[in-house]
Amino acid sequence: MPIARCASCGAPNRKGNAYGVAVIPVGYPDCAIVCSVPGCENPALIWLTAWETAEFNGGRRIFNLSGRSPKVRLAEPRSHVASDEPSPFCSMPVHAG
Ligand SMILES: [Zn+2]
Question: Residue 71: is its pLDDT beyond 80?
Answer without folding.
Answer: yes
